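hiii, so i know i said id send this last week but things got crazy w the move. better late than never?? heres the sequnce for the chain we talked about at the cafe, plus the structure i predicted for it. fair warning i was half asleep when i ran it
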Amino acid sequence: MPIDPYAVLRALLRAEAVRNAPKPEVRRPEPQRPPEERAR
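okay and structure toks below
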């Protein structure tokens, strides 16, 4: 059963999106800046 090349491309795109998406649970511990500084 040959693998659908588009399925491979879709899997790669999904992996890239997951890797580039910010994960709230696996976030690096960064000091939270006050909203005034972040607005600048």
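btw The chain has two helices and no strands. thought thatd interest u
miss u guys!!
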